[in-house]
């Protein structure tokens, strides 16, 4: 009896083991027989977030801003204490400009760049008015007047941004007439001349050179006639020669540059001190805040010469990192330009990107005597609220163009991309993506 009960219990258990799997699979077997696949619910299901802005560009800019704030505080605390009796005044002003710039960039992210076609003329008028007001405000102690509100606002920085926006809108609207000199080079020359003349009266040669470079570049990208571009280049050279004759210190800078190329010890004082800073920094620098060159009568270490502070405190490694960051910014900006929904976005993205990166490389090249001295700031790094503000606005516009590109990709077939000057061998921007502004 005991053995029979034991066998019965074992049989029941084995039957349950055979029945339970069949019960568990009953639903799936039934669905499979009806042609329906069983729904398998993942254990750790995660919701995928579709980010429509250019994340690599955003990360590059954030890195530049953080790095810039750290270097700026190190470069400015001594001069800030000497002038304001407080080592953090200039740093806090930069923070304030950064916060305002971030708000402006965020607004630009949600501002349809096609609306610039309506407001570009008003922006030009406002900027020209501001440049005229700067000239009307004279400082008896100096012949150089560049800012409003005690120098805290510089319209010349705004002029760089506005000229890019206006030229993008104008060249986009006249793209079919650019080969005619009456609709191409002549109006372009008038536009650039007005801006350059007002800036020259300040005077600010670096801004003049930047405006001329940007004007010529955007005319080329928009499909301007190569003969007209060659003529524009010739006129620019003649204009540069006129500047050398009218402004004595510009000739001195050019002579110092060529002397430094022949023999480094004969370069300008600023370049020699910059070399000294890089030599002290070596490969990995003396450490943030431990640099000495900025404390020993080094010209404007917190603005034009801040790259030398980078070289001393972070070494060649830090300088290369900074060059790499701006190179990444160039890559992302050009990619946004090529994938823009239309020619207007493509021109805007290319112009804004090249402007920021060109200013950066000019500043860095000057400090190692690869270019004649110019007063270009190092974007996102140098002290200056106006420069930081307009740079962040430019990034906001780039983000908006990228955002609209991704939206269009989701809505329509977006295999074709806008190709600046049709790099496949053509002369004009492709119109396959739609040329009309919204």
What does it look like?
It is a single chain. With 438 residues, the protein is mainly alpha-helical. The protein has one domain (55-411). 66% of the residues lie in helices and 0% in strands. It is built from 14 helices and no strands. Helix 6 packs antiparallel against helix 13 (343-367).
SS content category:
mainly alpha
The ordered string of helix (H) and strand (E) elements is: HHHHHHHHHHHHHH
Cα distance spanning the termini: 93 Å
Q: Number of helical runs?
A: 14
Helical content band: 55-70%
C-alpha Rg (nearest Å): 30 Å
The largest sheet, given as strand count, sense and whether it forms a barrel, is:
none
The proportion of strand residues reads under 5%
| Number of domain modules | 1
Write the layout of secondary structure elements.
Layout: H1 2-24, H2 26-33, H3 55-84, H4 89-109, H5 116-136, H6 155-173, H7 185-200, H8 205-221, H9 226-246, H10 248-262, H11 269-281, H12 306-338, H13 343-367, H14 385-411
Short description:
With 438 residues, the chain is mainly α.
List its traits.
438 residues; 14 helices
């Amino acid at each position: 009896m005991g053995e029979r009960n034991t066998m019965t219990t074992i049989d029941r258990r084995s039957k349950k083991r055979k029945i339970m799997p069949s019960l568990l699979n009953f639903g799936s077997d039934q669905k499979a027989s009806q042609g329906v696949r069983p729904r398998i619910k993942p254990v750790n299901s995660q919701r995928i977030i579709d980010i429509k802005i250019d994340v690599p560009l955003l990360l590059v800019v954030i890195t530049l801003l953080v790095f810039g704030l750290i270097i700026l505080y190190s470069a400015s605390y001594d001069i800030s204490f000497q002038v304001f009796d407080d080592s953090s005044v200039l740093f806090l002003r930069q923070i304030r400009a950064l916060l305002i710039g971030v708000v402006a960039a965020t607004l630009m992210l949600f501002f349809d760049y096609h609306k610039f076609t309506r407001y570009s003329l008003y922006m030009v008028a406002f900027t020209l008015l501001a440049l005229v007001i700067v000239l009307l405000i004279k400082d008896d102690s100096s012949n150089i007047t560049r800012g409003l509100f005690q120098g805290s606002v510089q319209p010349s920085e705004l002029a760089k941004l506005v000229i890019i926006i206006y030229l993008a809108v104008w060249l986009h609207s006249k793209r079919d007439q650019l080969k005619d000199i009456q609709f191409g080079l002549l109006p372009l020359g008038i536009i650039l001349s007005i801006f350059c003349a007002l800036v020259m009266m300040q005077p600010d040669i670096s801004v003049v050179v930047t405006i001329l470079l940007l004007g010529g570049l955007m005319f080329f990208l928009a499909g301007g006639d190569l003969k007209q571009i060659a003529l524009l280049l010739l006129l620019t050279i003649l204009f540069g020669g006129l500047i050398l004759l009218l402004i004595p210190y510009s000739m001195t800078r050019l002579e110092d540059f060529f002397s430094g190329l022949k023999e480094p010890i004969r370069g300008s004082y600023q370049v020699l001190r910059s070399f000294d800073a890089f030599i002290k920094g070596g490969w990995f620098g003396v450490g943030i805040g431990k640099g000495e060159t900025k404390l020993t009568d080094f010209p404007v270490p917190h603005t034009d010469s801040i790259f030398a502070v980078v070289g001393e405190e972070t070494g060649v490694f830090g300088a290369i990192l900074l060059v790499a960051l701006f190179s990444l910014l160039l890559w992302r900006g050009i990619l946004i330009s090529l994938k823009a929904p239309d020619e207007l976005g493509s021109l805007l993205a290319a112009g804004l990107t090249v402007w920021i990166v060109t200013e950066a490389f000019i500043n860095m090249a000057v400090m190692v005597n690869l270019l004649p001295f110019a007063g270009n700031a190092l974007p996102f790094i140098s002290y200056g609220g106006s420069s930081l503000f307009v740079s962040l606005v430019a990034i906001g516009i780039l983000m908006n163009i990228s955002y609209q590109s991704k939206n269009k990709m989701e809505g329509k077939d977006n295999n074709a991309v806008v190709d600046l000057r049709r790099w496949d061998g053509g002369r004009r921007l492709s119109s396959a993506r739609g040329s009309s502004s919204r």
